[in-house]
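Thread: Newbie trying to understand structure tokens

Hi all, I'm a second-year student working on a class project, and my supervisor (Dr. K.) asked me to get a predicted structure for one chain before our next meeting. I've only ever worked with sequences, so writing a 3D structure as a token string is new to me. If someone could post the tokens and maybe explain what I'm looking at, I'd be very grateful. Here's the chain:
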Amino acid sequence: MNDLRFAFRQLAKSPGFAAVAILSLALGIGANAALLARLPVKDPERLVIFNWLAEENVLPQSSNGWQTREPGSTKTTGTSFSIPTFEVFQQQTSTLSDVFAFTPTGNLDVIADGAAEIVSGTQLASGNYHRGLGVAAVVGRVFTPGDDRPAAEPVAVISHGYWQRRFGGDPAAVGKTVTVNGVPVTIVGVTAPAFRGALLVGEVVDLTLPLAVEPRLFRGIEDNRRAARWWVRVMARLCCA
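---
Reply by user tm_fold:
Sure, no problem. This is what the structure looks like when written as tokens:
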């Protein structure tokens, strides 16, 4: 926690951060308590999800995520962070391990084997997302940090349910190139049947792509890498008691 407080103090000195005026960081479970306890991953009790807490009417310029009033207070709490903030959190290795980020993307247009469809259960995630959660692939592989580089070839990991529905459980689906929002993407792996992602309870993720591919999927939108854009959710593992 001391490392995290230090990170926020350092962030407060950076341009653009003062406008957000984040006052404290909660490494808490909050609204996702049921989710963390039920996640079919390695040692779920070691997982934490980041929340921010701010005075009333002090909010990010742009925020995409769960946000509400703190019970019994005038302060607001939320779950979305900027990419620069996430990158600083990743440096806090004495307290946390595998700090990873993810965010839902809404509907994506997917063309596979010449057939088009709209897939609603989609997300972007950092290259250490599966490793941080302790999730393996039942066919193929999961993400590596190398997948989450701007120059990397776009890849995707799909859910077991989507693999069954869309590809009939064919192992040859791994290695297949599909088109997502006009971008050629190679399917590299399938996750276990029980794993449905780490979003809110009840949300199922069928298609996961690296964060680095976001500018190619959504051309013409504002730069989401700016400090004022708070749009990724951040989780980590505690590396010590």
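A couple of things are worth pointing out once you decode it. Confidence is low (pLDDT under 50) at residues 14-33. Residues 2-101+233-238 form one domain. Feel free to ask follow-ups in this thread.
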